[in-house]
Amino acid sequence: MSDFSCFEFKDDKLIFIDQTKLPIEEIYIQTDDYERIAEAIEKLEIRGAPAIGVVAAYGLVLSVREFSHNREEKFFNAFERMRATRPTAVNLFWALDKMRIAFEENKHLDNIYELLLHSAREIHLDDIERCEMIAKNGLMIFEKTCYVLTHCNTGQLATGGEGTALNIIKEGHENGFVKLVYVDETRPLFQGSRLTAFELEKANIPFKIITDSTAAFLMKNKMVDVVITGADRIAVNGDTANKIGTYNLAVLSNFHKIPFYIAAPTSTIDLNCESGKNIKIEERKKSEILRIKDIQISKENYDVYSPAFDITPNELITGIITENRLHKPPYNFNDKDC
Ligand code: MRU
Questions:
Q1: Which domains does the chain have, with CATH numbers?
Q2: Most buried among 8, 24, 51, 104, using CB within 10 Å?
């Protein structure tokens, strides 16, 4: 494995970096068990919408690795297990569906394992290409050298490739358009201060970590030129589910007349979802708020409400950057876009 890679399927195993340990420790886990992959998605050892789609596809490959007379039952057990891991990112369901179709078409063939592996690799390669195109298309949002603000983690760790919003930031930096990145720490699990900071450090891009509540102050003081985030599910009308706190940034950006962009592959667009009202929001467990790692920071008996995502209404989004192009409002995604 290279110096830093999010995950890789090699020698009939998935090897992945445990994102819960970053950036302090770089620990790789290897498994040939789809149940371990499902657990990794649930625990956010692997996270980010496109990444969980790709690794879930590899999980299904592993479910048919050993010859079995009840191959179909095994595959669908794994399929349902993966579907139950996280509800909001549509890339998961998109990738699982592609794998289901590949299974249905080939289920009687002896080399089903190789055929499913081929399908999973295609999903992975496809995501790598989409990330490249998103970065290229995203370059057009920069008109001058910018101070950029981003939320959560949308880079290599969150995708099969180089990232979505963070890849635009990297491309922008390479082309002289990004001076500094403000990184929201992204409570409660710190995907910003741990993961985005880690990736920006590796890419040699100047950054400053801020608390999530610092954005308004920065914007008021004209310290932010553009905000770019990723997405977990985009409805046909452009309403976008992303990490909790994204909606706050969109409201603030609009108030301060700062462009607010979403970047995502079209595999994040849900054509069955007319608006944000139809998007299921994952709720996380209270211990993630009451503790940081193993340190208790508030009383165990206190009640907590912890939605993992929020919905940004389409009218607050300046543009949505996909691998196809920069979409401008009014948004009305259809088959042709995806
Ligand atoms: O809970 P997470 O860490 O999986 O949430 C991830 C996000 O919200 C990302 O912004 C989104 O998945 C896009 S990743 C390219």
A1: 7-132 (1.20.120.420), 137-327 (3.40.50.10470)
A2: 51
